[in-house]
Design goal:
Elements (H helix, E strand, L loop, with lengths): L7 H4 L16 H9 L2 H6 L1 H4 L4 H29 L3 H9 L3 H32 L9 H20 L1 H7 L5 H14 L6 H4 L7 H6 L2 H22 L1 H5 L5 H33 L2 H5 L9 H10 L3 H14 L1 H18 L5 H17 L6 H26 L11 H15 L13 H18 L14
Helix pairs in contact: 2-15, 5-13, 5-15, 5-21, 6-7, 7-8, 7-18, 7-19, 7-20, 7-21, 8-9, 8-19, 8-20, 9-19, 10-15, 13-21, 15-17, 19-20, 21-22, 21-23, 22-23
């Protein structure tokens, strides 16, 4: 394949030079920390607590935070060593043309889902702040979602620099709030276990896996499923790193430490609130497949009481500004990069509108299912990339056409990871993202060793 026949996204790719890079504490660490200091991640911790053990949740959270670092590290090294973003370095694992769909367009599709999740989150906290009971599919909820999602999609299209500046300090506020809420609700921790005795556990699963294991696995999956797309985007983050040390330190503090801090205080906040008010658990259907993570988290913040809770609600509304705009921008960026003829601004607006519909109808409120889809989609992508990296001793370069070793590895890992959300077929066991990663890694090694990797092609001169 000649350079001229390469897809445009590869022909136009330009590496980020070393003189434009910065220390880990100025880019990678704060950017990733802001991701974990978000409502979806902290609300996701409620899943682990429905199994009745705070310690299980903390143990699983720590394991999940370490696994998140593992998901990030090889994509991060690829970004640092090449100076190229994910869609370029992914062309080795999935091919020059295969990379258009995987991870390119797939990342765009899932970013629309994230836009919907953050729009839904902002609307839920807004309703709590104004003491409204309006929920999905009501006129008021539709109005809030439409204004929020479309306005921030437009900001993402034309004011991404503003969002970047805001994201450098806004995450500080939810961090302060969750710490305050954790200490305020801590008095209820001693009553948490007894308060959860009224919750009905999924007995079929408890017979297979000890409750301690279920709680830990659920926390690990919540962290890993939440983070999987951001882990693959480690290439985009670390292409701004100066050295491997920057890659490691940025990931350790921005991912592992940030996830543990945000997750532990979220667990304390939720568990303490339930200990003080057990109806939070029953009202949110904890212990069932219909758990309302948002209801648990919002009620736990409300347990702080008075005007302080209202201030906290508003802080979490504000905290959704940057991620909502970023997700619409990233979705459009993925589509316009892979298909340059499509106008970026229009795509951003379309992504925002789709996100609004998913949020306003309540489709995006199932965090457990969404995290499973994210983990099943990107767990095997990263697993295959890690296998490719190990086989090649680094980045091999774009591979001609479609790399079927990568595609088959992804398909096998996706099936393993998605079973938990298919009715009447599988069940959620808490290790879906890990198993999809391992499957993608193993299958790629086997198929690449059997000769299914295409030949590499050269990037244009200077790339």
């Amino acid at each position: 394949m000649s350079n001229q026949s390469l897809p445009n996204y590869l022909r136009s790719a330009v590496p980020n030079p070393l003189d434009r890079r910065a220390p880990w504490y100025k880019n990678t660490a704060p950017s990733y920390a802001g991701i974990f200091l978000s409502v979806p991640f902290m609300a996701g911790m409620a899943v682990a607590l429905q199994y009745g053990s705070v310690w299980a949740g903390v143990v699983g959270l720590i394991l999940g935070a370490l696994f998140c670092f593992a998901l990030y590290y090889v994509p991060g090294l690829l970004g640092f060593k090449t100076g190229m973003p994910l869609y370029v370095v992914g062309s080795s694992t999935f091919g020059t043309h295969g990379g258009i769909l995987m991870p390119g367009l797939l990342m765009g599709v899932l970013q629309i889902g994230w836009h919907a999740v953050f729009t839904f989150s902002a609307a839920k906290f807004f309703m709590s702040a104004i003491e409204s009971s309006a929920g999905p599919n009501t006129g008021q909820f539709w109005l809030v979602c439409a204004i929020w999602g479309i306005v921030l999609a437009l900001v993402g299209a034309v004011g991404i620099g503003l969002l970047g500046r805001l994201s450098s300090f806004i995450p500080i506020f939810p961090l302060v709030i969750i710490i305050i809420a954790g200490f305020k609700n801590m008095s209820g921790l001693s009553n948490f276990s007894s308060a959860m005795q009224a919750v009905s556990f999924p007995t079929a699963l408890s017979a297979l896996i000890p409750v301690m294991g279920l709680g830990a696995f659920a926390a690990m999956q919540a962290a890993a499923g939440f983070f999987a797309t951001a882990g693959a985007a480690g290439a985009d983050f670390a292409m701004n790193s100066r050295s491997e040390k920057d890659v490691a330190l940025g990931g350790f503090f921005g991912i592992t430490i940030a996830a543990i801090v945000a997750g532990v205080f979220a667990i304390i906040t939720i568990a303490g609130a339930i200990g003080n008010n057990p109806t939070i658990a029953t009202d949110a259907h904890m212990g069932t497949s219909q758990i309302d993570n948002w209801g648990v988290f919002i009620s736990s913040i409300g347990q702080v009481g008075g005007n302080v809770s209202k201030v906290m609600y508003w802080v979490f509304v504000v905290a959704c500004i940057c991620p909502t705009g970023f997700c619409a921008f990233l979705a459009a960026n993925a589509f316009s990069t892979m298909i340059p003829s499509l106008p970026r601004t229009l795509l951003t607006l379309i992504a925002g509108i789709i996100g609004v519909i998913l949020a306003a109808t309540g489709t995006s409120q199932n965090l457990v299912g969404f995290f499973l889809i994210i983990g099943a989609s990107f767990g095997p992508i990263i697993g295959a990339m890690v296998a490719d990296y190990i086989r090649s001793g680094g980045w091999a370069g774009p591979r001609q056409g479609v790399n079927w070793a990568g595609y088959i590895a992804w398909a096998a890992g996706f099936v393993v990871g998605i079973l938990g959300v298919i009715p009447q077929i599988g069940f959620s066991y808490g290790l879906e993202t890990l198993m999809s990663f391992v499957t993608g890694f193993a299958v790629y090694l086997i198929l690449a060793g059997a000769g299914l990797e295409p030949k590499t092609v050269e990037m244009p001169a200077g790339k």
